[in-house]
Amino acid sequence: MLLTIDTADRRAIYQQVADGIKALIARGDLAEGAPLPPVRQLAADLGVNLNTIAAAYRELQSDGLITVKHGSGAVVASRTMERSDDELRRTLRTALTQLVLAGLPKGRILNIVSDELHTLMKGTK
Amino acid sequence: MLLTIDTADRRAIYQQVADGIKALIARGDLAEGAPLPPVRQLAADLGVNLNTIAAAYRELQSDGLITVKHGSGAVVASRTMERSDDELRRTLRTALTQLVLAGLPKGRILNIVSDELHTLMKGTK
Amino acid sequence: MLLTIDTADRRAIYQQVADGIKALIARGDLAEGAPLPPVRQLAADLGVNLNTIAAAYRELQSDGLITVKHGSGAVVASRTMERSDDELRRTLRTALTQLVLAGLPKGRILNIVSDELHTLMKGTK
Amino acid sequence: MLLTIDTADRRAIYQQVADGIKALIARGDLAEGAPLPPVRQLAADLGVNLNTIAAAYRELQSDGLITVKHGSGAVVASRTMERSDDELRRTLRTALTQLVLAGLPKGRILNIVSDELHTLMKGTK
DNA sequence: GTGGTCTAGACCACG
DNA sequence: GTGGTCTAGACCACC
Prior knowledge:
5% strand; homotetramer; two-stranded antiparallel ribbon; DNA-binding
């Protein structure tokens, strides 16, 4: 699944998992209709509790990205997620502020953005 | 101070304050050596708990961006913050994933990045 | 059979099937003594797992609405189901709460109730 | 809080709690801005686990009925909840089917509906 | 086999 | 003092 959790990361574990899967969906590594790994299996693979993964799947479900069926499992439902323009701008601004304060020059930041965007959108068209 | 808190924002209040001040520092609106408002005053202005502002200042201090002296208040100590490349990339990727999943086309995303970056770096050179 | 399953429905599939058949019985579309489709056939028609239909029939049986004989299939046994007044009220209240919170005015709710009731009781006399 | 949980009820405990609070909100017993009891207190009052109540609050939050603030608590945010017409009709039909199959005559059902609706909407205008 | 619910209890984050 | 997260482990519901 190409997912890792990092204890140094300030985000909650379930959030890292949810964000990681969102990236996989954006990239198309998880296409619409693709099954997600069973909660228990992913929990075992990542060495975390079952409920932690369940929380991640719950977030993905409430974002409309996956559908979870009781006896079957979870599958990717959509590659689109609702977010207001305001929130998107705010999110981006907060992230960019980190890079600017880290001292990266504008050109370098644009390079990284371009690079990440390329990876994230490789499956978009 | 041009700081606002938004109850619709998913971030914690102290985080909104800290992030807001970071943006002000990045933009140069708060230059090196500039004094930050007293905790009590900012708390009153924003209508939040005093401890909330204290938590924000604590984060800024641990990031090395401000120094807090008892009695004389807080001042901007630096416009640079340590962050590993990994962490920066991760932060940016997580933010960009939101925009991509929201369905924004690449060109639009680059426009927003460029726009935000312009605002954030206006005081850099 | 006029039964459909809807993946957007929050209810479990077996529950949708059981509820759907209950509505057919209430309406008289399935009269007392009428045979239900064989489990295998209904499963095939709806494109769901055989056990799912079996679970639905099991609920109908435990409600006393059908009898299942090995070899001869299931038939409608009764058009009456035991339910305590408390439970009925609770069920109705929970449903009505949804409509009220959805912002429907009283008149509109009464119209829908009347409409649905008319359909459900058309075979009652 | 006028909330009770019933082990005979087929709904999950957290669902009973969520539904109960929804009814209180619809009735206006919990007005907009009113604080909900702390998770731990309600858990103790009802004799269930803290996480069970947290799950109920999470549902109310995702329905947009309450907002939960980290160090403060939960307050009623709105008395309106989004639901599609289809879903509302389906919900009502399923509930009414129970009453019809329980053998209640039309007049009696309308009486109960009217009664419940009166209670639920007492705080609407 | 799948996910869902619930418990008990610990620890952290927020205001 | 508030809610959030995480764990370990049990049992249930669904397909």
